[in-house]
Prior knowledge:
By secondary structure, the protein is an alpha+beta fold. The chain has helices spanning 36-43, 53-56, 80-83, 90-105, 111-130, 134-141, 144-155, 175-182, 196-206, 248-259, 283-289, 302-309, and strands at residues 26-27, 165-169, 187-192, 214-218, 233-236, 267-269, 272-280, 313-315, 327-333, 344-351, 356-369, 376-379, 391-402, 407-416, 424-433, 438-447. It has three domains: 86-139, no CATH class; 162-269, Vaccinia Virus protein VP39 (Rossmann fold, 3-Layer(aba) Sandwich), CATH 3.40.50; 272-447, Hnrnp arginine n-methyltransferase1, CATH 2.70.160.
Amino acid sequence: MKDEPTAKRRQIILKTAVGNQDNNVSTVVETDSSSIEHQQQQSLSSSSPTITKESMEGKVIPTPHGDNDNLPTTNVIAHKTNVNITNMTKQETATKIFNNSSSDSKKGTNVEEEEEAEVDRTSKDYYFDSYAHHAIHEEMLKDEVRTRTYEMAIKHNAHLFRNKIVLDVGAGTGILSMFASQAGAKHVYAVDCSSIAEQARQIVQKNGFGPDKITVIQGKIEEIELPVLEVDVIVSEWMGYFLLYESMLDTVIYARDKWLVKDGTGVVFPDKAVMYICAVEDGQIKKDRIDFWNNVYGFDMTPIQKIALQEPVVDIVDSKAVVSDAVPILHLDILTCRKEDVEFAADFKLTANRNDYIHGLVAYFECAFTQVHKPIGFSTSPFCRYTHWKQTIFYLPENLVICDKEKITGHITCKPNRKNRRDLDIGISILVDGEHSKSSFSVDYRLR
């Protein structure tokens, strides 16, 4: 479930994640840090988190780096009115588009035809319809952490693009394709299945990137054919909520295996991704979202409470609400990973950093471009600047009382939903044996 913030939700963190280059993205640097304790000590004097090359390879566990109040601000931070572009999520947008566009056309058809058309369209087109709506692209383009990172990764490494053939997977408005062409690409093939490709074709033309520079192709990567046998570079902004939601990574892997040069010189932007999990105190919001169903105007509506609990919430998490360290649960090397890797299982052990309560677990991810001259990346951590991916919150059925340095042992599984592969079935098991809380339970969630 993609859930927009409620009226009482936290303020968007208008702080920057890092500041070496334009104060927008993180620089991946070499580090000798090898322990959580060492990084926590450094966080007292650090203004922002650093994505390390080792963290992308699973050697270092990045941890929170202080309060957001200590993070430097930047002149290019988007206002809250700009980040919350719409009250509709991507999926809700798709539903509204379908309902509105189909209402007139269905007049005059019988009920059976309507039902058949809706079922067929739901299974095939909702995902792509959502990306045909301009508001989705507006939100992503106004996410400066996302867009500026790609721009810097491409333009600061023009030597990787000069006279090269580039494939842009899920090109959208064509912004990454134009960055690649500016960097000197010989030709860019921009592929998108949604009808936004029609506008992208006009956009690249208006900005001086004619058919001799950028070719826009509308269609599914798995169904189209390119005019070339192979490409030198693949660029794609494939990441979804909880990193894997929408399963677009499958498409990137397909494109990589079919078209990326096989001589070892092929480049994928980005090429590394890591997902983390931590514990959070979120009593008031959990009360508003989950406990609300206990008594609704005097009525017991707890049957809905179970459904609400099983739907992860995509929202902004205040860094001050995080009550544990953060540990990695998934490492992806986009150059070598397989389609099956979107289905994973991992054990984790969190350490509380203060006496507090735990109402849920929070997942976020980092991405990095490490095939470039000076590796860079970005994070969607609660301790970093806002991105449109926000964080993913898994509320727990029990509120846990935790003491400083106590351990929370857990296990997480994730796999695409059997009926709709773009949805995710996520299972989380928790074991706590502390001074005040002794509990173990499992919850099955569905991100949709």
